[in-house]
Amino acid sequence: MENQLIAGRVFVNGVYDEPTVLNRGMLQPSMCIVLQGRKKMLIGDNVTEYGPGSYSLAAVDMPVSGQVTQASESAPYYGVRIDLDSKEIADLIVSLQITLPEKQHEASNAGAWVTQSDEALQESFLRLVTAPAGSAFWKQTLVWTQGKGVGEALAWIKRHFAEPLKIDELAKRVGMSSSSLHHRFKALTVMSPLQYQKQIRLLEARRLLLSGSLDVANVAWLVGYESPSQFNREYRRSFGAAPLQDVETLRQMGVTL
After folding, report:
1. What are the distances in angstroms from CA 216 to CA 159, 223, 230, 251?
2. Which of 5, 68, 109, 127 lies at a CB distance of 3.0 to 4.6 Å from 12, suitable for a disulfide?
3. Do domains 10-140 and 146-257 have the same CATH topology?
4. Among 39, 14, 32, 55, which Cα is nearest to 4's?
5. What is the pLDDT of residues 107-140, one digit of tens each?
6. 157: closest CA among 62, 23, 84?
7. Which pairing describes strands 112-116 and 54-58: parallel, antiparallel, or unpaired?
8. What does the domain layout of the chain look like in residue ranges?
9. What's domain 146-257's architecture?
10. What is the pTM of this model?
11. Do 79 and 99 meet the contact criterion of CB atoms below 8 Å apart?
12. The domain over range 10-140 is classified in CATH as 2.60.120
């Protein structure tokens, strides 16, 4: 069972009384603290399993995979998510002239990571930006104040994911060299711009197929594939099953996207 109890921008993002299957999705800028149980997250090629007191923190939209690995009726998994507005936080950092802590988190180049919270952090979201991992979050949210750069490239790909992606043209659009864009983009999202676009395409295709209104060929075309066979191959590689088989499994599980 999954609840969404809204109190401002804080959500009860998961209450599960048994482990879940590995599921792929788009992690939006947010912090999710595990209060009970354990969870596994795949960010790029890095797999992290974490439990009570640990939290995931995302500064940008990231395609990830997640799975609850420890939960039971007597001790269900329980997590709380705080959605974040990167632009608002970046504006706050700039307006208050906050300086970055000298201690840098080891994952400070990534756009999402998992780390352990301290007691004060669990009591107040404000302490988030003063914890060791806070400097990493500041660093990535500040990209939104630059006007152009990786943040703008991310936003453009999300809006135009079905269009052909030419790195040279995208780099020119955001005022960067092609090599600089590729390097900084991969450092932030742990994937190249083309891989990022592919993940968005496949997640949207899965959502469209689950809606039941379109067939596989039309969905492939709508998300930007010219070849249904290529779409089928990449879908199977990403989700572990052919499109119709995967969607049927999701429906039997009662999953909605």
Report:
1. 22, 11, 12, 16
2. 5
3. no
4. 14
5. 556 778 888 887 776 665 444 445 555 556 555 5
6. 62
7. antiparallel
8. 10-140, 146-257
9. Orthogonal Bundle (1.10)
10. 0.61
11. no
12. yes
